[in-house]
Hints:
It comes from Apiospora hydei. By secondary structure, the chain is α/β, with parallel strands linked by helices.
Amino acid sequence: MKAFIDNVSQTSYVSAIVARKRLLFGVSLVFLILIAISLTETEDPNWTHGSGRFSHITAHNGTLGNSTFPYGSGGPMRMGAGYQRPGYERPLANGLPLRIMAIGASTTRGDEGFDNNGFRRPVRDYLTSIGNPVNFVGPHRVGNMTDNDIEAWPGARTEVMHHRAEHSLPFMKPNLVLANLGSNDCFQNFDIPNFYKRYYRFVEYVLEASPRATLIMGTLLPTTETKRFNAGARVVEVNKQLRRLYKIFQKEKRPVVLAEMMGPDGIHPENLGPDLMHPNDAGYEMMGRIIVQAIIEADAKGFLRPAEPVYGILQDGNLERQDDAYKAWAEAKRLEEAATKEEEEAAVAGMEAELKKYMAEIQAHEQQSALAARSDDPPPPGLA
Ligand SMILES: *[C@@H]1O[C@H](CO)[C@@H](O)[C@H](O)[C@H]1NC(C)=O
Ligand SMILES: *[C@@H]1O[C@H](CO)[C@@H](O)[C@H](O)[C@H]1NC(C)=O
Ligand SMILES: CC(=O)N[C@H]1CO[C@H](CO)[C@@H](O)[C@@H]1O
């Protein structure tokens, strides 16, 4: 931990100050140049369209064909150098593979969502689309996406998930933990005044058990449910604690980022599903976006670090599953062969039993014939 603190204070902070100075200098320089250009040249319409977000599309050596340019008006566009900010066009942390453990309860599982992937699908889709390999890890599989591993239990309170994580986290060593914990403490009205202590211990544990992890701590979603749990006020109280805890984690220079779920762009009662506790489908997408923003912030702060190598855990969670179809086929074949073998053994046993019976009959007939030979009876039919 000390090394990490030193690292942050020596690298990120110093370089942030240097970067800010450079930025100020750069901004004023750009301003002067722009003024100079505007005084000497007429405006090039291609340039005004060609800057900004689309600068990463440079398939034609800095030019872009008219067919793909969204505002296309004929002729190749010249592209500006653009503003390549990690998290928008470029992968985070130079394309660092992210081994992610989502720890939480039913909302983390994506319960009540249409595909049971919850916020994990939008998070995964986004990160892989900008070039960061993703592997979700955890002891269970929930949801219909391929890379669906997770550490989440419906109804689990914070300290329950702490104990669960003790059986998975040290063996999977994620470098990113998405924690959404506390809703069930609220629903079960479990010692709310001391919630922050349990949460602090949990975070402490995560950062110890997987020392290269960054932890994204989500605040709780609002709830308007009143019949069963009536936990709205408790959620407000716990969120207050979570935000204060975050200030403490910042003071302690922990690799922790807050994902504020209840901000102006966050989850509001109209984004909840019919049970008034879990998000609806749009709500899960919003959670995903908020978590992605927190991950981008973690990268900007220099928190993201390579995951510790663990045997059997690949960088890409989909690649890890690519043999699944073969395994299913091989297992079906094994079962089929076992069934055939059983059938065959039963047939052989049946024949053996028949033979025993048959031979016993013959013996009986032979004995009878021996007796009949003495009394001139004809031989039994069917026997030559
Ligand atoms: C790309 O453009 C630059 C500058 O116009 C030119 O010097 C270079 O040869 C071009 N490269 C290719 C592969 O066309
Ligand atoms: C997952 O389930 C949803 C809802 O049934 C469906 O629309 C989607 O295509 C499924 N995705 C996969 C990969 O099976
Ligand atoms: C430079 C370029 O890609 N020009 C294309 C613009 O669109 C027309 C119609 O699709 C093409 O024929 C040009 O080649």
